[in-house]
Amino acid sequence: DIVMTQSPDSLPVSLGERATINCKSSQSVFSRSNNRNHLAWYQQKPGQSPELLIYWASTRESGVPDRFSGSGSETDFTLTISSLQTEDVAVYYCQQYYKTPPTFGPGTKVEIK
Amino acid sequence: EVQLVESGGGLVQPGGSLRVSCAASGFMFSSYAMSWVRQAPGKGLEWVASIGPGGVRASYAQSVQGRSSISRDNSKDTVYLELNTLSPDDTALYYCAREHRGGEWLVGWFDPWGQGTLVTVSS
Question: Do A40 and B110 touch (CB under 8 A)?
Fold first, then answer.
């Protein structure tokens, strides 16, 4: 199985400041057949179901604010929140969909400093 | 509006069985793979099982392989997950999710997710 790791575990950020979450896969999730990275990001607010933010590592889901952006390739990926808002307090998960089973990172909890 | 509504969770004794259901609406159900993802209390996300659009191809996490079965009824826009030989480790909120697969890939990302149904395994 592809193992996903995330850092940091917890991220206190001041309102309006940048938040950066890292995700690493144990093997490359880049496919040369479609030239894409098979990596998604989700946001789970307290007491709610996860919601898709980004897929193909950098494609923002419709309706997701543009302060959220994804980058990276092969084994190293980043989710950036350019200016943290109160409503962004949540746990963020990365997920690879390059190989079965799909696997998730352990999550990064973003909170207000 | 795309909607997924899970049901069927509850309290089950160790060794017991349970079937949870997910009713879909707002999209062409028969065109999408569907999945179950679970979340133990205070823990992260764990994929459990997926089933292809036609219901023929299914895959399972090793943790439930051999004691679970995913199925779907495209005439009812519903996907099911049957869990057998349950243990306390299976206690979790079970989410249903629509799976998006690019091209010929057999695994994808999940969107949207239902609200989840809680399965508690305890004596």
Answer: yes
